[in-house]
Amino acid sequence: MAFAxxxxxxxxxxxxxxxxxxxxLLHAFPLHSDMWAxxxxxxAAGHRVIVPDLKGxxxxxxxxxxxxxxxxxxxxxxxxxxxxxxxxRVVLGGLSMGGYVAFSFVASYVDRVAGLVLADTRxxxxxxxxxxxRTSQQEQVRSDGTEALVExxxxxxxxxxxxxxRPLLVEQVRRIMSANPPAGFIGGLEAMKGRPDSLPHLSTIxxxxxxxxxxxxxxxxPTVVKVWQERMPNSxxxxxxxxxxxxxxxxxxLFNAEVSDFLDTL
Length: 266
Hints:
Helix 4 runs antiparallel to helix 8 and helix 5 packs across helix 7. The chain has a single domain (about 1-265), classed as Alpha/Beta hydrolase fold, catalytic domain (Rossmann fold, 3-Layer(aba) Sandwich), CATH 3.40.50. By secondary structure, the protein is an alpha/beta fold. It contains 11 helices and 8 strands. The protein is about 45% helix and about 15% strand. Strand 1 and strand 2 form a beta hairpin. The protein starts with a strand and ends with a helix.
């Protein structure tokens, strides 16, 4: 178990394997680094893999003030963590909220990015409807805790077939989400509400990029992902059959195979 002090925040991270250009994986909301266990196991045989708990999640510190959470803060803290580890360039991957952080990281530190893996995420900012829903979810956590919201989110994060036929995976995702403190939920929601619009900048992102999306992803449907992916000049889209929004958990072997093939091209 490894920790680093970054800007007064205690960040937990996993750092395994070896390689010249590490793979950094950023987790979804409201999960933490455990969601990448299958990817760590699959990729660490040939690569160094670094997987942090973002501020507010997992074993990292969770400040109570939601104004301390933003995509730029997450990105800056990841950069500072890499500085402390003596890492200059990485292949950066992020799923859902982790993808939002990856866009922010590229905006500030593009020279440190050798390649991008963007999974089940969006480039645009929230619609007014989604913004208001996140605000309501923050109020729900403040008044009632996280348990009810975890159950609501499960329905959207996993494909219907997964919910019906894979109870162990459903329980795994529930367990990971439930381990996060209320402050992390509220702060993560605040960061997502305030995130910048990356759509105008997609054509300027020239690093090799693999875009992955689950066939049955409802928060980030393949049709929506394809529209923004096509604006990225050096990108390729792969739709993972049968998977929902958490495609790395629902289709881990195929997810790993696609990422491994992508790493071999860099």
